[in-house]
Amino acid sequence: MRLNKMSEKNNISKKLVILGAGESGVGAAYLAQQQGFDVFVSDMGTIAGKYKTQLQNWNIRFEEGQHTESEILNATEVVKSPGIPEEAAMVKKLRAQGTPVISEIEFAGRYTDAKMICITGSNGKTTTTALTYHILSKAGLNVGLAGNIGKSFAYQVATEQFDYYVLEISSFMLDDMYRFKADIAILLNITPDHLDRYDYKLENYVASKFRITQNQTAADYFIYCADDEETIKGMESRTFGAQQLPFSIINKIQPGAYLNQDDNIIIQTNQLQETFIMSINELALQGKHNIHNSMASGIVAKVLELRNSTIRESMGDFKNIEHRLEQLGKISGINFVNDSKATNVNSTWYALESTPKEIILIMGGVDKGNDYTMLNDLVKQKVKAIVCLGKDNQRIHDAFKGLVTEIVDTQSAQEAVYVAYHLAKKGDTVLLSPACASYDLFKSYEDRGDQFKKAVMDL
């Protein structure tokens, strides 16, 4: 562990304020205290019990249900939770007076020399992050998993000594990252998402995603999807310091990864290395989008010069993460799938593309300005009925009226599962893939998925 351009003695006079006392904020508080900062944590909401207990045990000052301006505006630097928007009054005041506002990733990155493998994209980043971590772990590397997944990066930097980190990085995190550098950066895809945070301008969201490549040098790698239209368009107006390794299921690409005519993934990152070859039928993750995810992870493994046998074994035995196309089993011959993590339209498209017909689709929640038209063809081909799960389902009714015979409104996971079960018959699939955020009826997409699973088990 190292201190970046500052001694512990200097830190004692530096006041670090952390806005938001969730996983990332509390982890950042612990690391900051360890590094000798004067730390204060402030959360406008109610702090969850486990985080409050941690702060108390560590003797870190905190407040909840308010922001005390005299404390916060006096900070030398502020670490902001990714969930807090720029429009928040306190953030505006901090920006106006010139106080640096950074992300937990930016802060924690100062205190580790570990190699950073950073993964972003509108869809697939959690799966790709988990798969990459699985491959590296199986190869025996000393690796941590953090970012939008697992324990906070900052807490792990404070308590562990990893040589590598695989980090899932959201656009909200990227917005507050400045000097941090990814040794290996992966951009999976760009589709409209969270546009309410980007003035409803896709170009602003695209710019945020490309921050994954900032500060990279010729010693680093940028891995991207050559099949993704917005990524390619975004690259045209930008320059990159890193070595580029694209992947494609459409065109032959070398160096990089591609799909050959025999449905084999071919990966070659260096002419001196043995080429990696694996049939897509052997992949643990099935579906077109998961070929992309597997290619991206495979390129990382080849860049790190891992053995082909290890990569092949890891890609074949990987178990997908909870709430992402999670197979729950069958009841009365009806298959139930939990894809609660699908919080945007593109994720639901992937879920429908991967699921055999006939489908009873449970969707809905907080609509982020969704354009549902991209789902029309798949809904027509595969979906028998839609069960809406949300407080306001009008836009879903408007979007799919005439494409399916039945659209039913429900107000709880239990009600949605009950209705879907009675609309389905043997051989059908009940798929929870909401295309929307969860916080109208649920605490989070995890809570939504957990309640869905419980309702299925209660049938």
Automatic annotation (TrEMBL):
Keywords: ATP-binding, Cell cycle, Cell division, Cell shape, Cell wall biogenesis/degradation, Cytoplasm, Ligase, Nucleotide-binding, Peptidoglycan synthesis. The keyword Heme does not apply. Pathway: Cell wall biogenesis; peptidoglycan biosynthesis. GO terms for molecular function: ATP binding; UDP-N-acetylmuramoylalanine-D-glutamate ligase activity. HAMAP family: MurD (MF_00639). Belongs to the MurCDEF family. This is UDP-N-acetylmuramoylalanine--D-glutamate ligase. It comes from Mucilaginibacter polytrichastri.
